Fold this sequence. Notes:
- With 268 residues, this protein is an alpha+beta fold.
- The protein has four helices and 19 strands.
- The ligand N[C@@H](CCC[C@H](N)C(=O)O)C(=O)O is lined by residues 13, 45-46, 64, 70, 73-75, 148, 181, 199-202, 205, 208-210.
- The site of ligand LBFN2T5F has 18 residues, from helix 2 and helix 4.
- It catalyses: (2S,6S)-2,6-diaminopimelate = meso-2,6-diaminopimelate.
Amino acid sequence: MAFRFHKMHGLGNDFVVIDAREGAVEMSNARARAIADRRTGIGCDQLIIVEPSEVADARMRIFNADGGEVEACGNASRCVALLLGDRSTIETLGGTIRGEAGQGGATVDMGHPRFDWDAIPLAYPMDTRAMPVAWEELESPAAVNVGNPHVIFFVPDTDAVDLERLGPIIETDPLFPERINVNVATIVSRDRLRLRVWERGVGLTRACGTGACATAVAAIRAGHVEGPVTVELPGGPLVIDWRAGEAIRMTGPATHVFTAEADMDAFG
Ligand SMILES: N[C@@H](CCC[C@H](N)C(=O)O)C(=O)O
């Protein structure tokens, strides 16, 4: 069966987006992994399926490159908001979010962050502002759930961290029963952070929207910065704003690269 897809990206975090609002597609974890495979499939960090929703304008399903279905993706949210146009509501496993398409990008209201240890989730109770744990030089991280789980380490120099080696060790540590996205951030000034992210189920990416949200929230909560905060990622900047008790707002680019067709049977 042939299907149409859009290749899109947010700051180099790239997606295969299938608009299934008018024709359902059957997706399994193995099929999602095969489509995402850069050597033998179409290739992407995340596979996104846009479906009809009973509670919002559309429902967004998110599959990581390893085939696992997850709750949230900030960069894909901006891409889907751009596809839907104007103002839209998007149902995700992490909650319903609101998009506002702009010129070449979007602003998305990503919902409220959660800080309770069992909402991250962690395996046992601890203070999520500064957790009493360490992996080599990475210590005392914060944890935030912004629809999906994140741990954040504030370090003097993000480039000096061997995230390719430490990322998978932390991602799969038993402290995180649902695994975790690993962020290393440097505070540049009162309104600017630098960030690199090891994404759960993917690895190092050019940008992670939810990582930027979680890191900005953790930095504001700790009093390191004040919103709005510019978060510089390897792929470029995102602007994140948040005040205690309010929803997180993320603004940044979304890029449509091309539209093409492929044969679903080629992916199992
Ligand atoms: N690239 C994303 C995050 C995608 C999901 C993440 N890897 C997870 O497993 O939670 C973003 O832009 O937020």
